[in-house]
Each structure stands twice: as C-alpha cells, then as structure tokens.
Write a sequence for this structure.
C-alpha cells in the first residue's frame, strides 16, 4: 500500500436503478440491492481488492489477451500511487521505472505479454548494453522489469509462468558481459570541501557541513525539521520521518554532536514543522550578497523588485537534485573567481564521514552512525586505510 493516506470511496445509492454503487477512479461498480447485506459484502470485497492494488483500478481487460504496453501502463499507474513520500509526492523511483519501461515498450510494446519470456528480457538487456549503461545499472533495471511482471502475475493479468521464466535470467557478471563498469563513489577530500564552502550561500554551506559531520544521506538532510530532532541531551538525535529503508521497517536515528548543533542552531525556525534548510532563505541570501556587491547606487524603484505572485516561487525545502545543483553552482562560481575546484557531489560526503569514523574508531562504529544493518554494507562506504595497509605490508616483509 502507498505510504500516504488513501481516501476510501463511499458506498452510496444509485437513485436511477435503486442499486448500491461505489465509484473507483471514475468507474461505477454496482453492488446489488441498496442496503442489503449482500451489497455491503460486495462493497468490502471491491474496496479490499482496490486497496490491494495500491488504491488504483485495473486499467486493462483481464478477459482479453494483453500486450506488453497494457502491462506497462497499468504498472506505472500503480507505481505513481505506491512510491510516494509522507506528503504524497512521487519519489525518484517513479522516473526510474518510466525510463526502464520505455525501452521495453519500444521493443515489445505491441507484442503479447504472454510471449515476453527470457529471450525477450535478454534482448532488452543487450539494448541497454549497446546504449552504454553500466553493468550494475543494467542489473538493477532488469530486476525492475522482473518486478513489473511479478506484479502483473499477482494481479492475475498474466500467467505466473511468465514471471517464473524471467527469474531464470541471471545478472551480468563483471568482465563477462561487455557492459561498462561504473566508477565507485569515492570520498571527497576535506580540503576540497573547505575550498568550496566560501563560494556557497550560508544555507547550502551549513547543509554541506552538517552532512560532512553526520554522514547522513542527502535525502535525509533536505527533509530535516526541528520537530524531528530530540534536543534533550548533549547529543541530539534526528529521526527522519521517512528514509531509504523505511519500507523494511528499519528505524533510522542520526546522532548530531556539538559541532553539528552549532551549525544548525541559526536555522532552527520558530515553527517546529518548518524545514530547517529553505530554498527561499537561500534565495534571499544570494540576493542580499548581490546587493552588497553592487557598485552603483540603488534607485528607489529598485529597492524591492519582488513579484507579488512569482511564476516559480522557491519551494519549502530542497530536493536532492537542487541541493546537488547548489553545490555545483558554488564550484562554478569558484572557477569564475580563478579557484579550480574538482567537481564533487554531496553523496560523497557520506563516504567521507564513513572513512573518517572507520579510521578513528572502527568499522562497526561507521555502521552504527551511517545506519547500516551489516558491516559489509558499511564497508562499501569506507575507503581502505592505505597507511595501515602499507605498515602491515612493511612489517610482514
């Protein structure tokens, strides 16, 4: 079921026929004689099936032989209601699904869904290889396609044998498939971050510093609100309202030490439900900096040019993409000033924090701070300590 609240359609009387009716996604479903026990049972059955589909009605006719495009359309509609955040907005998973299924639709859209077997999936996979996608991304997309047909099977739109056949297609192996290999995400050097900070507005600068200290994900940082932070001890504890592993029923608590607290305090609004880091505040900071750097005198008509109803007003909070763009803007600004800073993105700060914690404490400490369930996952974020490895190699000759 979707993470946001679904409004349940009501049981009501269809006056023209005297029957009970419920309307789902614009389509009337007649339930029998109004107010009869049978009609109420039918209403519960229809609603329960509708909820099981994530609050959407089927968009295909089960009695007819379906083509792949019908499965694609039905699944995208389902995904748009299922992959939502706490505010009901679709997550970044939805565009990933659409981009993946676009390839399937291009190649097999008009073919029968019952004929989409392992060879068809391998052909789609080869197209991804030919288009230059990296191996890990291809494996993830192939897994998504399998998930689509698993869903279609659960909705009784196709026979289960189709999905089970697709399971026989194994993932691509490194060096044995011709696909490109992705470059691992590396930590960004603290010196590079420090060189970037002067070219960021105060809001984005604080976001970078807090993420650098805490190692939280960018998605957790941009949704931070005072109401989600427990400030009743020397170490604050931030519990994001939603996060990457919430659907696995994992609890995510992020400790914030004294340094992070000092950075956050100026941004804590009086309203505890407001987001800590606001694009509106950042825009005001940039405008103030431009005004301060202005050499000519400000005319009376130029004191305030703010539009009463701007076409694209700043949002309440940052998205991960806009946060990354703000950091990139600072790097470009530095380049214009003659300071050459290599490109980096905020997610590298999580790797930087993991490496620092692992070096100063332990891998288990890095796992605890990053909120990983296993040491193996935490290890992917932490760079090996080359200095320690060199010392061991020298000692053993």
């Amino acid at each position: 079921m979707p993470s946001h609240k679904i409004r349940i359609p009501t049981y009501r009387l269809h006056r023209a026929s005297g029957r009970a009716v419920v309307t789902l996604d614009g389509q009337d479903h007649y339930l029998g004689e109004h107010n009869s026990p049978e009609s109420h049972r039918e209403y519960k059955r229809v609603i329960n099936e509708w909820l099981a589909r994530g609050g959407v009605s089927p968009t295909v006719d089960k009695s007819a032989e379906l083509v792949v495009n019908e499965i694609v359309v039905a699944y995208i509609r389902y995904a748009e209601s299922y992959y939502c955040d706490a505010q009901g907005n679709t997550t970044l998973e939805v565009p990933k699904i659409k981009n993946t299924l676009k390839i399937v639709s291009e190649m097999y859209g008009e073919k029968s869904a019952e004929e989409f077997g392992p060879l068809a999936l391998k052909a789609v996979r080869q197209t991804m290889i030919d288009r230059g996608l990296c191996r890990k991304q291809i494996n993830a997309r192939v897994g998504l396609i399998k998930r689509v047909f698993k869903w279609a099977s659960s909705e009784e739109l196709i026979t289960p044998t189709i999905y089970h056949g697709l399971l026989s297609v194994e993932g691509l192996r490194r060096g044995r498939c011709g696909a490109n290999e992705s470059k691992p995400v590396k930590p960004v050097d603290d010196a590079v971050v420090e060189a970037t900070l002067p070219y960021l507005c105060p809001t984005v600068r604080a976001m970078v510093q807090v993420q650098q200290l805490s190692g939280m994900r960018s998605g957790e940082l941009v949704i931070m609100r005072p109401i989600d932070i427990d400030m009743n001890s020397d170490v604050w504890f931030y519990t994001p309202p939603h996060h990457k592993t919430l659907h696995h029923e994992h609890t995510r608590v992020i400790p914030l030490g004294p340094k992070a607290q000092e950075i956050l305090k100026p941004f804590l609004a009086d309203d505890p439900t407001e987001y800590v880091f606001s694009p509106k505040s950042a825009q005001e900071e940039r405008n103030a900096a431009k005004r301060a750097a202005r050499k000519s005198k400000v005319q009376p008509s130029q004191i305030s040019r703010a539009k009463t109803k701007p076409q694209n007003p700043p949002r309440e909070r940052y998205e991960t993409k806009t946060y990354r763009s703000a950091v990139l803007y600072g790097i470009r600004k530095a380049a214009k000033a003659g300071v050459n800073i290599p490109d980096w993105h905020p997610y590298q700060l999580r790797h930087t924090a993991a490496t620092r914690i692992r070096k100063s404490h332990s891998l288990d400490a890095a796992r605890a701070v990053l909120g990983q369930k296993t040491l193996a996952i935490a290890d992917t974020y932490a760079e090996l300590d080359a200095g320690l490895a060199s010392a061991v190699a020298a000692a053993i000759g």
About this structure: The chain has a mean pLDDT of 82.
